[in-house]
Write a structure and sequence with these properties.
There is one protein chain. An eight-stranded antiparallel barrel has the order 1-3-4-6-7-8-9-15. Strands 10-14 form a two-stranded antiparallel sheet. The chain has a two-stranded antiparallel ribbon with strand order 12-13. It is an alpha+beta fold and 334 residues long. The longest helix has 22 residues. Helix 2 packs antiparallel against helix 3, helix 3 packs antiparallel against helix 4 and helix 4 packs antiparallel against helix 5. Strand 3 and strand 4 form a beta hairpin. It folds into two domains: 95 residues, Serine Threonine Protein Phosphatase 5, Tetratricopeptide repeat; 236 residues, Beta Barrel (Porin). The chain contains six helices and 15 strands.
């Protein structure tokens, strides 16, 4: 008798689990409806889409598919109210799901326009053995943080860093009794601090969103020059080695602006990832020395200049951090 009771209880427990496991849900009704719809059994699919809509009245896709079934069955008058209701419901649901805060870190590639600086440093080299690496395209990274007062429109701050490829000059030569080795290194960077915003819109029925933004502010720029020269002189069998080291630093700033467009793929309700393409305006018209080498004719606060014609006619040396930007980006929504 006890064995019978235990068997009965076990059977009822298994049946209860089965009823939970195989319970029909709105998603299940929808999946069955889609299979029937794709098999062109529209009347049967309609019944399952109707069940899904009754079980979950907040999903516009269920109502949209009811309308599609009526259209396929040649009843456009019945289809129209469901399709219109689905469209309105989609807008309402999108507004409810929209996150107010977005934080978007980014990192990638940027071009710069340092032609004038490169010409000044390397155009008139006297040595045929010198090797040069010029300022060029480099790395950029940063973060956007915005708040959405209106759906899709985020306003806030954008911070970043621009690191062009460093410039370098090396030269070695040797003549009887003397040899020399020189290495000059040049580096610059900019930290833009900007305010602005971007508009983002979601592409219906897809996990994809796209948008465009504009930011403007001030770019804080700085740079340095480090020179190392090693000279060896041998006279009457006596060798003397001398090292010359000097360095200089300079800084400046300018108006900067970013124009960009982006596309993202929704990974979860809080995370999206994608690509950003844009253009930056940022030319520092003049830099000033913050450190000068010993024995230099310049003083701290003097403008960094380059010769326009000869060495007497000079003008401020411009540093152009502007250029195209291609970065990967991620967005976190709160």
């Amino acid at each position: 008798m006890k064995l019978f009771k235990m068997s009965a209880v076990l059977f009822m427990f298994i049946m209860a689990l089965s009823s939970v496991s195989f319970a029909e849900t709105p998603e299940r009704y929808y999946d069955i409806g889609m299979k029937l719809y794709n098999a062109r059994n529209y009347s049967k699919a309609l019944s399952y889409f109707t069940k899904a809509a009754k079980a979950d009245k907040t999903n516009p896709e269920y109502f949209h598919m009811i309308g599609n079934c009526y259209e396929k069955m040649g009843q456009p008058a019945k289809a129209k109210p469901f399709i219109n209701f689905a469209a309105k419901l989609a807008v309402t649901r999108s507004a409810l799901e929209w996150k107010k805060i977005r934080v978007s870190p980014f990192a990638g590639f940027t071009t710069v326009g340092m032609e004038t600086v490169n010409d000044f440093l390397f155009e008139n080299l006297a040595s045929d053995t010198a090797k040069t690496s010029k300022f060029g395209a480099g790395f950029t990274a940063g973060v956007e943080a915005g708040y959405s007062f209106l759906q899709g429109l985020y306003t806030g701050v954008k911070l970043g860093i621009i690191l062009p490829a460093n410039a370098k000059l090396t030269d070695e030569y040797s003549i009887p009794g003397m040899s020399s080795k020189m290495e000059n290194q040049y580096s610059v960077l900019m930290i833009p601090v900007m305010l602005g915003g971007s508009y983002e819109f979601k592409i219906p029925n897809t996990p994809v969103s796209a948008g465009a933004g504009i930011y403007a502010g001030w770019g804080f720029a700085s740079g340095s020059f480090i020179s190392n020269t090693e000279q060896t002189i041998t006279i009457m069998g006596i060798t003397t080695k001398t090292d010359y080291k000097s360095d200089a630093a300079f800084s400046g700033g300018c108006f900067t602006a970013d124009l960009s467009a982006f596309g993202e793929y929704k990974i979860s309700d809080m995370i999206s990832a994608g690509l950003n393409i844009g253009y930056r305006i940022a030319t520092v018209s003049e830099m000033k020395y913050t450190k000068v080498p010993d024995g230099s004719p310049y003083e701290n606060g003097d403008v960094v200049e380059y010769p326009v014609s000869g060495w007497t006619d000079t003008k401020p040396l411009p540093f152009n951090f502007g250029g195209f930007i291609i970065t990967a980006r991620a967005s976190f929504y709160f």
